[in-house]
């Protein structure tokens, strides 16, 4: 008999829900990855955007992905792999992150970059920069979701650490929203 979608799995009796830890871990990894890759995106905007505002905006986009579409991806992979071999879950989760965040990079991040480039007098992104965005997003998505599937083993019982990670991602995303609104206020 198939188990219901409402069943919550945990690492141990006192651990946090597995998918919650996976999502927070993936969001943290993606946010850190986007912060580190922010100079690539600033170069794609012709260096006309400051590094910190774009870095926090990229963090906003990555956290928004994980806490919406990414959470659904985690749930789908978990449902598909429920009866599968546990050792393949991180790899399959990583592939789901690669595909999901790769598409997010192509359609969402590239659109945000174009929304900054065009008012600055630059042409929309060409094929080369779009491929750069997609590859960067796909690699970050794979790494984040792979780590998201490994993390519950060590983080599920460390509530304070998971809470700090979750709060940090939300605070960085809020700061990214603030900077994005300020950039748009200047550009539009």
Notes on the structure:
By secondary structure, this protein is an all-alpha fold. The chain contains six helices and no strands. Helix 2 packs across helix 6. The protein is globular and about 55 Å long.
Number of strands: 0
Q: What's the Cα radius of gyration?
A: 18 Å
**Overall pLDDT score:** 91
Main β-sheet description: none
Give me the number of helical elements.
6
Multimeric status of the protein: single chain
Q: Helix share of residues?
A: over 70%
> Could you spell the SSE succession in H and E letters?
HHHHHH
Beta strand % = under 5%
The gross shape turns out to be globular
For the terminal residues, how far apart are their CA atoms? 56 Å
Structural class by SSE content:
mainly alpha
Low-confidence stretches: none
Quickly describe the structure:
With 188 residues, the chain is mostly helical. It has helices at residues 18-44, 51-80, 89-117, 127-150, 152-155, 159-187.
What is the element layout, followed by pairings?
Layout: H1 18-44, H2 51-80, H3 89-117, H4 127-150, H5 152-155, H6 159-187
Keywords:
single chain; 188 residues; mainly alpha; 6 helices
């Amino acid at each position: 008999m198939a188990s219901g979608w409402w069943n919550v799995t945990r690492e141990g009796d006192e651990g946090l829900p597995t998918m919650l830890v996976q999502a927070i871990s993936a969001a943290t990894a993606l946010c850190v990855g986007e912060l580190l890759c922010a100079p690539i995106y600033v170069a794609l905007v012709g260096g006309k955007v400051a590094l910190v505002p774009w870095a926090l905006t990229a963090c906003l986009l990555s956290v928004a992905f994980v806490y919406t579409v990414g959470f659904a991806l985690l749930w789908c992979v978990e449902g598909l792999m429920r009866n599968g071999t546990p050792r393949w879950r991180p790899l399959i989760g990583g592939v789901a992150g690669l595909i999901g965040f790769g598409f997010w990079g192509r359609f969402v991040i590239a659109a945000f970059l174009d929304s900054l480039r065009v008012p600055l007098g630059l042409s929309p992104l060409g094929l080369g920069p779009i491929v750069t965005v997609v590859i960067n997003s796909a690699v970050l998505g794979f790494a984040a979701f792979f780590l998201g599937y490994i993390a519950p083993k060590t983080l599920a019982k460390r509530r304070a650490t998971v809470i700090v990670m979750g709060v940090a991602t939300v605070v960085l995303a809020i700061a990214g929203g603030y900077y994005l609104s300020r950039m748009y206020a200047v550009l539009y």
